[in-house]
Amino acid sequence: MNTLLDIMKRLRDPQNGCPWDCKQTFDSIFPYTLEEVHEVGDAIDRQDMGDLKNELGDLLFQIVFYAQMAQEQGAFNFQDIVDGISEKMMRRHPHVFGNKVYKNEVEQKADWEAIKRQERATETKSESENDYFSDIAPRLTALQRGQKILNRAGENGFDWKNWKPIINKVYEEVDEIIEAVEQGESQQRIEEEVGDLFIVVTNLARHLQVDSENAARKAVNKFARRYNRMMQLVQEAYPDCKLYSLEQMEQGWEQVKREEKQG
After folding, report:
1. Which residue from 202, 180, 207, 203 is spatially nearest to 191, judged by alpha carbons?
2. Fewest CB atoms within 10 A around its CB: which of 7, 103, 110, 133?
3. Model confidence over 171-209: pLDDT tens digits?
């Protein structure tokens, strides 16, 4: 770890460092951090342990980068980051690092949320005291932020008891989209209705213990994989065609799905 920290320090050296690394800021590095997080997720989806090792290294380097820039400003350093997360994990696991005993996992989760609420209560509010979600990062993806906001609302009792009533709400939101389109509503209104559907589906995912961001990413990856295989099959079946019909592509699509079922 010390070797990596030293590498980062040398890269940021104003005299002998790398010009690109030296000119970076927190804002300029952030998009690269998001990219690295998604590349970690992609390696996990592919179950490629070698690639995952490399991507985790890239993600760790991002954290070291932030730590070095913060140290240069006198804000904090890498050790402060390690100390902070260590203290937090020990505080949130009193049954492991203390004498607390839970009857079951439900009781443990309830105490976990109670500890988090206590932590939030002692933090300085960055926005209005009436904003219950001010500590949820606005730079999260919409699905990630939506799930966290819904979790917070649920903690305060504003929630369905189980997933089944949410299914009816999904149908209701779909009907409202159809109605908005058929009645010639504005594009803004249609967008709002589609957004309502997204938030309800995110809540459904939450109740089914599914991470909405992971589910969406995997669905997109699956579609891309299927589409590429479908085009390969269609090109093999119709080598003389330059433009394929929807019927031809649908036949290829169904064949791809059959291949997946057969393993």
Report:
1. 180
2. 103
3. 999 999 999 999 999 999 999 999 999 999 999 999 999
168 within domain boundaries: no
Domain count, the chain: 2
- Of the three residues 28, 52, 87, the one that is the final residue of a domain is 87
The pLDDT, as a whole number, for residue 124 is 53
Print burial letters for 207-233: b (CB count within 10 Å at least 16), e (below 16): beeeebbeebbeeeeeeeebeebbeeb
- Rounded to whole angstroms, the Cα distance separating 61 from 55 reads 10
Spatial separation of the C-alpha atoms in residues 210 and 204, rounded to whole Å: 8
User: Rounded to an integer, what distance in angstroms lies between the CA atom of residue 235 and that of residue 244?
Assistant: 9
In a domain, 66, yes or no: yes
Please tell me the distance from the alpha carbon of residue 39 to that of residue 27, in angstroms, as a whole number.
Answer: 20
- Spatial contact of 147 and 206, defined as CB atoms under 8 Å apart: yes
78-137 pLDDT, tens digit each: 999 999 999 999 998 888 998 888 888 888 888 877 887 787 776 655 445 678 888 888
Residue 30, domain extent: 2-87
Domain stop point among 19, 53, 87: 87
Candidates 24, 137, 1; CA nearest to 82 is 1
Judge contact between 36 and 59, C-beta under 8 A: yes
- Say how many CA atoms lie within 13 Å of 184 toward its Cβ: 0
User: Does some domain include residue 225?
Assistant: yes
d(CA 126, CA 136): 11
